[in-house]
Write a structure and sequence with these properties.
By secondary structure, this protein is of the alpha/beta class. The protein contains 13 helices and 16 strands. It folds into 2 domains: about 5-230, Acetylglutamate kinase-like (Carbamate kinase); about 310-425, VC0802-like (2-Layer Sandwich), CATH 3.30.2130. About 40% of the residues lie in helices and about 25% in strands. Helix 2 (about 50-60) packs across helix 5 (about 115-125), helix 3 packs antiparallel against helix 4 and helix 4 runs antiparallel to helix 6. The protein starts with 5 loop residues before the first strand and ends with a strand. Bound molecules: aspartic acid (ASP) and magnesium ion (MG). InterPro entries: AceGlu_kinase-like_sf (IPR036393), Asp/Glu/Uridylate_kinase (IPR001048), Asp_kinase (IPR001341), AsparK_Bifunc_asparK/hSer_DH (IPR042199). Keywords: Amino-acid biosynthesis, ATP-binding, Kinase, Nucleotide-binding, Transferase.
């Protein structure tokens, strides 16, 4: 492989949601990646993935997809018109063709088919559209680039909607082709998508484009990876809930992984491991203010500058009580954990008392009913839904007071570094 190091840029849906956003993206590539070997990973435009999920749902129930499909196409064509007013431009044909393929794909869906498998073959179109547009647009701006199909590089098993990466194969394929292509110019590819060894499409989980970029960065021993977002970097809270957020200039991989575990939606959780393994720094930067410092996530000692506030919505609190006036025993806990593991219910928080055991988990009514069916002979089970889980990492007295204000707390827990509470969603 060439000794010159490679950078990987990932642009999410918001950074390609309009013609103006594409223009801004091109400027960023020009100024911040221009003279560098650069691989660009792009997500679907705006809310396209949600729209495709909706279309898939309709097709699966044999409803009419024509209006939804027309709307999605119109959105893409409008951006296309603005970026490529010239009717003869090959990009128009390319998009026509892709939309035709999507239409066929939707038509073929039978209600009994394997939903998750069909999901991947359908919802993957968003990235195919956006990457084709980006490829042509950057070329027109004088940025020589190759468009590659990430399904031919990121190899996964057929665990649909959450493809598991075959690292050996993926690394071999990436290293075989990409260093050469990167000598010749930029390389553009799709986030979120992978492929199986029999040519089917897989996806890597919602918001998985960050992960795609990290996979490429890992395989190419990249110098750095940058995620361009609509926020100034990694913040200590979601600005939707907290008006006075602060940005972390530098933070460790470990701290970021923990924040993702507690539900911070900053970075797809699988993204960090490949980067941490090779100590590849991850920059989180704002595409609205590309000159801004952003955040560097790296192999450093994290100096706490502000507590992190993390909120998980749509939580459910389930408590299991013993029926015979004895205490909750290890045997009881074993039974409960077994059932949770079987049903793949993830515990976000748990607490034990003499006669009952409680867990806070993402609200999933079907799984909850199965859990109750499995355990109701042995336990008295109560549950509450429409709850919210707050986590304050690296808390202090002020941050706890702030969180507690105006809330009826259903459950509270603190360790040396982390404070958590469950309350009703309407208590804000
Ligand atoms: N387009 C996909 C999604 O919205 C992947 C991504 O954006 O990271 O989930
Ligand atoms: Mg997206």
């Amino acid at each position: 492989m060439s000794t010159e190091r490679i950078k990987v840029f990932k642009f999410g849906g918001a950074s390609v949601k309009s013609a103006e956003a594409f223009r801004n993206l091109a400027r960023i590539v020009q100024t911040h990646g221009g003279r560098q070997r650069l691989l660009v990973v792009v997500s679907a435009m705006g809310k396209t993935t949600n729209a495709l999920e909706a279309l898939l749902g309709q097709a699966y129930q044999q409803q009419d997809v024509a209006p939804g499909l027309a709307e999605l196409k119109e959105y893409h064509l409008q951006v296309l018109q603005e970026l490529f007013p010239e009717q003869e431009h090959p990009v128009h044909q390319r998009l026509e063709h892709l939309f035709e393929l999507l239409r066929h794909q939707l038509q073929r869906i039978a209600s009994g088919s394997n939903f998750d498998k069909v999901y991947d073959q359908t919802v993957s179109f968003g990235e195919l559209f956006s990457s084709a547009i980006l490829h042509h647009f950057l070329a027109d701006q004088g940025l020589v680039n190759h468009l590659i199909d990430s399904r031919k590089y990121i190899q996964t098993d057929n665990n649909w909607r959450e493809g598991r990466v075959d690292w050996t194969w993926t690394e071999r394929l990436v290293r075989r082709d990409l260093p050469q292509l990167l000598q010749e110019g930029l390389v553009i590819t799709q986030g979120f998508l992978g492929g199986t060894n029999n040519g089917l499409t897989t996806t890597l989980g919602r918001e998985g484009s960050d992960y795609s970029a990290a996979i490429f960065a890992y395989c190419l021993d990249a110098e750095s990876m940058s995620i361009w977002k609509d926020v100034e970097g990694l913040l200590n809270a979601d600005p939707k809930y907290f008006p006075d957020t602060v940005r972390y200039p530098e933070i460790s991989y470990q701290e970021t992984i923990e924040m993702a575990y507690y539900g911070a939606s900053v970075i797809h959780p699988k993204t960090l491991k490949p980067l941490a393994t090779k100590k590849i720094p991850l920059y989180v930067k704002s595409f609205l203010n590309p000159e801004g410092e952003g955040t560097q996530i790296c192999d450093c000692r994290f100096v706490v500058t502000a507590p992190a506030y993390i909120i998980k919505e749509r939580q459910c609190l389930v408590s299991f009580g013993v029926k015979d006036f004895t205490f909750i025993s290890e045997k009881n806990l074993g039974t409960i954990f077994n059932a949770l593991s079987e049903l793949r219910i993830k515990i976000n928080l748990m607490q034990n008392s003499a006669i009952s055991f409680s867990i806070c988990t993402d609200d999933n009514p079907e799984k909850l009913q199965l859990l109750i069916q499995t355990l109701r002979d042995q336990f008295v089970i109560h549950y509450n839904t429409e709850l919210r889980l707050y986590t304050v990492k690296n808390y202090d007295a002020a941050s706890i007071n702030r969180i507690l204000q105006g809330k009826r707390v259903l459950l509270e827990q603190r360790t040396r570094t982390t404070f958590q509470l469950v309350c009703r969603s309407q208590d804000v």
